[in-house]
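New to this. Please check this fold:
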Amino acid sequence: MIANRRTFTAKNGQSDAALDLLKIEARTMSWPHGLRMYSSSISQFSLVSFEAEFDTLAQYETFWHEWNSRSTTPAFMAQWWQLVESGGKNEIFTVDVIK
């Protein structure tokens, strides 16, 4: 299993709006294993992050390709870039679960 974490810095005063927009968009998507969203508490200020798990790298690639191909994605991205700074991080981690 892999985890994909994407982290952005919200523009001044826009953290809550960015998180709200992300929640709305996330509800329209079929996440394989759900989605976790994070906002900074004790960290760099104004961070907005989300993390999703995928069974394989191929599943991750297919998921994001399908999302990028949706007709609604450009409108979401236009709103998104109004709320966050350019850039960010896109990380992929291997998940090992110890029971």
Remarks:
- The chain has a mean pLDDT of 93.
- Residues 2-94 form a domain with the Alpha-Beta Plaits fold (CATH 3.30.70.100).
